[in-house]
Specification:
Strand order of the largest sheet of chain A: 2-1-3-4
Number of helices of chain B: 5
Distance between the termini of chain B: 67 Å
CATH architecture of the domain at 39-133 in chain A: 2-Layer Sandwich
Radius of gyration of chain A: 24 Å
Distance between the termini of chain A: 42 Å
Order of helices and strands of chain A: HEEHEHE
Oligomer: heterodimer
Number of strands of chain B: 9
Strand content of chain A: 5-15%
Number of helices of chain A: 3
Structural class of chain A: alpha/beta
Order of helices and strands of chain B: EEHEEHHEEEHEHE
Helix content of chain B: 25-40%
Largest sheet of chain B: 6 strands, mixed
CATH class of the domain at 39-133 in chain A: Alpha Beta
Radius of gyration of chain B: 30 Å
Number of domains of chain B: 2
Shape of chain A: elongated
CATH topology of the domain at 39-133 in chain A: Nucleotidyltransferase, domain 5
Number of strands of chain A: 4
Shape of chain B: elongated
Chain lengths: 139, 140
């Protein structure tokens, strides 16, 4: 992109770019701040439309377990669905790290409760005592 | 922010070439515009979890009165609180509001119901004022 700022002959054409550059910088900052680079762990599911506990502030992301409408368990959008046994193994390796395990269960609102219950049982047997169940804030 | 593109001192012109800067900035802008995904705002419910065997261990009459079963009855999803059956989250919230809050409440869900309907029960318990909400998967 090249804007000519020189006129012909003795006359000089000045293109005032200050406002445009200001706006573009603001847009760049906006997109940099709002971009979410950790979306790989969040699969596309229709979460239950509930208010939730109206949490405030930032929390540790922890481990995400996605349960889609078909009852498939997805840990990463770039990987195929996993079985309950594979989930159990992944959970145990995750929990073996330091600190209290933070697990977020993102279950589709139309997912079968039987698979949801199986996941809860695996979580409980792995030593997770409390699970964050994701909701979609209505409106 | 103001960049002077032309500065005159005496007879000499000082020209600041901003072409490259603007090119890079536009590239950054396009990159972030394309890569940004506008996510819907999410929240969460945080019940404690327990298996049915554990919850049965310390059960008594009071404990049973404070549990909500989410069931499929005649093809319809319902909430069962003691002898009372409710079909909506609002009805359940009203009933739960009359219970003692310090005992906590257990939400138990069996096969056939949806995740959304079950989580609405947890939400109703939170809205009713319960701090201690426990989710228990019902055995078949």
């Amino acid at each position: 992109m090249r804007f000519s700022n020189r006129g012909q002959g003795d006359r000089t054409l000045i293109l005032e770019l200050t406002s445009m550059v200001d706006i573009v910088f603001l847009l760049v900052i906006f997109f940099m701040v709002t971009s979410d680079f950790a979306r790989d762990a969040r699969a596309e599911v229709s979460l239950p439309r509930l208010d939730g506990e109206q949490m405030e502030g930032m929390e540790e992301a922890g481990m995400y377990i996605n349960l889609n409408e078909n009852g498939e368990i997805v840990l990463s959008t770039s990987e195929p669905p996993v079985t309950l046994e594979e989930l159990d193994a992944k959970l145990r390796s995750y929990i073996s790290g330091e600190g209290a395990p933070q697990v977020t269960l993102r279950a589709d609102r139309n997912a079968p409760i039987s698979m949801f219950n199986q996941i809860v049982k695996v979580l409980e047997s792995s030593g997770v005592s409390s699970v964050r169940m994701a909701t979609e804030v209505p409106g | 922010m103001r960049f002077s593109t032309k500065h005159q001192r005496g007879g000499k012109n000082l020209v600041m070439n901003m072409t490259s800067l603007i090119d890079v900035t536009f590239l950054l802008l396009v990159y972030f515009m394309v890569s940004t995904v506008m996510a819907r705002p999410e929240d969460r419910l945080t019940p404690t979890i327990q298996t049915q065997n554990q919850s049965a261990g310390g059960s008594d009459a009071d404990f049973q009165a404070q549990s909500v079963d989410v069931l499929l009855r005649d093809g319809v999803q319902v909430y069962q609180l003691g002898q009372q059956t409710m079909r909506t989250e609002q009805e359940l919230r009203q009933r739960l509001s009359g219970l003692p809050l310090d005992l906590g409440v257990f939400i138990r869900a069996g096969d056939g119901v949806s995740v959304g309907f079950t989580m609405a029960a947890i939400q109703a318990a939170r809205d009713a004022g319960f701090r201690q909400v426990t989710y228990v998967p019902l055995e078949k």
